[in-house]
């Protein structure tokens, strides 16, 4: 399969927070940039539950590979609601 990517997407967007919600039919990934006092959704990706499970598996595998090369990644707590403060 040949991958095509429109020029406006090639640069990507930066996100420092992600929110995941779901219904029985789909998972919604909202990728946000938090710059207190505002959190802006930069991208929204909606997938089936089966695809969400595949994403989780491939992400876990890539984190294992990354940590094998560079060491353990510390998972900081998300910002507290309404404060924008990081723990």
Measure the end-to-end span.
43 Å
What is the topology, as strand order, of the major beta sheet?
A: 1-2-3
- N-to-C series of helices and strands: HEEEH
**Structural class, from secondary structure content?**
alpha+beta
Question: What characteristics describe this protein?
Answer:
87 residues, alpha+beta, three-stranded antiparallel beta sheet, 2 helices, disordered C terminus
Topology overview:
Layout: H1 7-10, E1 17-22, E2 27-35, E3 38-47, H2 49-70
Antiparallel strand pairs: 1-2, 2-3
Question: How would you portray this structure in words?
Answer:
The protein has 87 residues and is α+β, with helices and mostly antiparallel strands. The chain has a domain at 14-70. Helix content is 30%, strand content 29%. A 3-stranded antiparallel β-sheet has the order 1-2-3. Strand 1 and strand 2 form a beta hairpin. Residues 83-87 have low confidence and may be disordered.
Quick structural gist:
With 87 residues, the chain is α+β, with helices and mostly antiparallel strands.
